[in-house]
Amino acid sequence: MLWRISMGWPAVYLHPRYFPALPLSTPPIIGPEALPALAERLRIAPPSRLFVLADANTARDCYPRLAAYLPAHELLTIAAGEEHKTLATCTEVWHWLTQHEADRHALLVCLGGGVVTDLGGFCAATYKRGLRCIGVPTTLLAQVDAAVGGKTGVDFQGFKNHIGVFQEPEAVFMEPAFLSTLPAGELRSGYAEVIKHALIADAAAFADLRGLAVAAVPDWTPIIRHSVAIKGQIVAQDPHESGPRKLLNFGHTVGHALESYLLAQPGRAVRHGEAVAAGLVCESWLAAQRGLLSAAELTQVREVVAAAFEPLGFAENEIGEIAAYARHDKKNQGDVIKCTLLQGIGHGIFDQAVTVADIEDSLRAYLTK
């Protein structure tokens, strides 16, 4: 089967096993061959020392499977959760590497979801000005999105990924079997990025999602390959997000605002994908208001999101505070909030100027539908 990718440029047809040129030493390896391939890579190019970074969940659920493929190494387990994606946790990692006298020829393997791959990649990129790093993403969100593309970083003063660098890992190894360790909510969280990729680049794939039941997917491997192929093509054209890579931020201007606001409210933190799913609806609504998306297409977006996600809970009187977070979005230019919108399903457009008032209106529309 061939996947069609169209982003305003000539259509490209990709076989699911094909990956376009990525700024990686090797393309991602996806499937049951991933961990054996990692072992072979370590045999061929052994590091001076090997270190594994995991969180409390992946240390328990995934590390035993990974460890069987690794030579002698050190393991650091950090606390799990977005609230620990901070410079304080980075200090813990840097201190651990320093204590164990890691040199620049050592290798850090990041075993986890987006928090671990983002934070671990950032720590590796900044430790002694650069440490070898490999990603072993264990969540659907990390496998379809976070672990590919070279964005690393941490949250700062309540703002998502406020501190970070672009730094590709040396390689990425994706074992879909790790997804069986995830709770249902975590699996749905990653599914939001699958929806996003289809909306910005592949209308036919989005049509296929309309009947998909997340809990009933028997094998995520083809879906992972498809999302990685879309993201890989975009990142290869624009590694540092000066142009087309901004397409990948669809749903994230509003989504990050919601996530940041709710994370700051005790007991109300939501998963990244849950916030992005709401952002997909809000930003699709903005596109419809500008005549870029038809009412029927907006309904389709709402239906696909609603089939997998419960509505986020926030009140009318919180909308102003939520929208204000968008002033700090990384795509902004000066006082102008730059957003990615849809120009029809399967075609994203970036650098669309929106106001805080626009975002407030989209959040009100989300509450009333």
UniProtKB/TrEMBL annotation:
Classification via InterPro entries: Dehydroquinate_synthase, DHQ_synth_AroB, DHQ_synth_fam, DHQS/DOIS_N, DHQS_C
Leading EC class: lyase
Catalytic activity: 7-phospho-2-dehydro-3-deoxy-D-arabino-heptonate = 3-dehydroquinate + phosphate
EC number(s) per entry: 4.2.3.4
Family listed: Belongs to the sugar phosphate cyclases superfamily. Dehydroquinate synthase family.
Cofactor(s) needed by this chain: NAD(+); Co(2+)
Keyword Nucleotide-binding: yes
Keyword Magnesium appears in the UniProt entry: no
Domain 3-dehydroquinate synthase C-terminal: 190-332
Protein name: 3-dehydroquinate synthase
Domain 3-dehydroquinate synthase N-terminal: 76-188
Pathway: Metabolic intermediate biosynthesis; chorismate biosynthesis; chorismate from D-erythrose 4-phosphate and phosphoenolpyruvate: step 2/7
Function: Catalyzes the conversion of 3-deoxy-D-arabino-heptulosonate 7-phosphate (DAHP) to dehydroquinate (DHQ).
SUPFAM superfamilies linked to this entry: Dehydroquinate synthase-like
Subcellular localization, as worded in the UniProt entry: Cytoplasm
Signal peptide location: none
The organism's taxonomic lineage, starting at the top: Bacteria, Pseudomonadati, Bacteroidota, Cytophagia, Cytophagales
CDD domains according to UniProt: DHQS
Alphabetically ordered keywords of this record: Amino-acid biosynthesis, Aromatic amino acid biosynthesis, Cobalt, Cytoplasm, Lyase, Metal-binding, NAD, Nucleotide-binding, Zinc
